[in-house]
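Example 222, ligand flavin-adenine dinucleotide.
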Amino acid sequence: MEIKELKNLLFEFGDNVSFEHDLKRKNWFNIGGKSKVFYKAENLKELVNFIKTLKGREKIFILGAGSNTLIPDNLFDGVVIKLSRNFSNISLLGKDIIVAGSAVLDKALSDFAINNNLSGFEFLSCIPGTIGGGIRMNAGCFGKEFKDILLSIQAIDISGNVITLPAKEIKFEYRKTNLSEDLVFLSASFKGIKGDEKEIKNLTNELKLKKEKAQPTRIKTV
Ligand SMILES: Cc1cc2nc3c(=O)[nH]c(=O)nc-3n(C[C@H](O)[C@H](O)[C@H](O)COP(=O)(O)OP(=O)(O)OC[C@H]3O[C@@H](n4cnc5c(N)ncnc54)[C@H](O)[C@@H]3O)c2cc1C
């Protein structure tokens, strides 16, 4: 669609939508051009409404932390969606299940697990991305991947329906899954193993040191 048409169509989303938006500061590598539309999803209700309004007429790209995304210099002819802080909730369900929003950073999930004496999440401290990006990439390191801890995903499909996908129905491969490109992941639930806080902390620090030596993650390209 033309930008003029999109401006009318997306008018109700106000300042959360911008056009010919510069993506340079929105990705790990600080590179790239603009997107035809950029939408900051304020909350679930608004995001569902946004997707229903688009009716699949535009290509959609969900941007997490941008640590696995190389944005090309030419205009992205579609809509880039960034989830707001309202998708960053994290909570404990029962004694060993963590539910985390898609915008939660992998490191924050690892820290939360430590604070709740749950092991299995240590490797996440080494990956500079979000839960959404981690699911899409089946991210992992030091022999552990998202698939090892994931129970289920909550997502929005192209028609705006909120669906739940059990992990056992997803095919995970090395750094990829068979999940449809159209899905917007909202949150996920993960299963941990009750453990000793000190041991979990020690293992986390060990992995961080190992990773830091092999590939510095704290240095962001400027
Ligand atoms: C220094 C450095 C170290 C790294 N180390 C590792 C490592 O050890 N192991 C590893 O696996 N990777 C590693 N990576 C790659 C990267 O961090 C991971 O792939 C990470 O999971 C990407 O998350 P992100 O939020 O940055 O995703 P993005 O780069 O923003 O997006 C990646 C993909 O996920 C999709 N996506 C993001 N959020 C959502 C959502 N909510 N719904 C639907 N789709 C979504 C995007 O559309 C895109 O297709 C590293 C990268 C860097 C720069």
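Summary: The CA atoms of residues 152 and 166 lie 4 Å apart.
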